[in-house]
Amino acid sequence: MAQRILRKPKGFLEIFDRKPGPDKENTHYCPGCGHGVVHKLIAEAIEDFNIQDHAVFVGPIGCAVFFYYYFSCSSISVAHGRAPAVSTAISRVDPQAILIDYQGDGDLAAIGTNNLIHAASRGENMAIFFVNN
Q: Mapping DSSP to helix (H, G, I), strand (E, B) and coil, where does residue 32 land?
């Protein structure tokens, strides 16, 4: 009999109701893909810092868009490369928001380089996770 030894951090939803298909307990990412590992680390940090009520996940299209299936916090999906710009807008509306940008390599390094550089030069208060998938 298999025994479950891992636990889901509180930053994750217990059951992934928003995810399509019959399997509501596991992520859908391909074996070897780093998204699942990075998701778990971010969910653990959300729990450790107790920021779930203020965290806002901002992610683009592509594989990174599916973060909203898994996290128990506010989230918004945006166009390719625009997560830093949208996070900047959110921070102006809600200065207490803890912004987590989650972007893949094509999104951030190719299409979104301009948005990233300008957000960094302004010293915007956000965490940007660059996942080279």
A: coil
Cβ pair 46, 52 in contact under 8 A: yes
Contact 46, 73 (CB under 8 A): yes
AA identity, residue 49: F
pLDDT digits (tens, 9 = 90+) for 52-103: 999 999 988 877 778 888 888 899 999 989 999 999 999 999 999 999 999 8
Report CA-CA distances (Å) from 37 to 29, 81, 86, 111, 116.
10, 22, 25, 24, 23
Total-model pTM: 0.82
Secondary structure of residue 21 in the 3-state scheme: coil
User: Parallel, antiparallel, or unpaired for β 74-77 and 55-59?
Assistant: parallel
- Confidence at residue 105, expressed as pLDDT on a 0 to 100 scale: 83
Residue that has been written with the tokens 């930053």 in this structure: 11
Nearest C-alpha neighbor of 105 from the set 75, 82, 81, 132 = 132
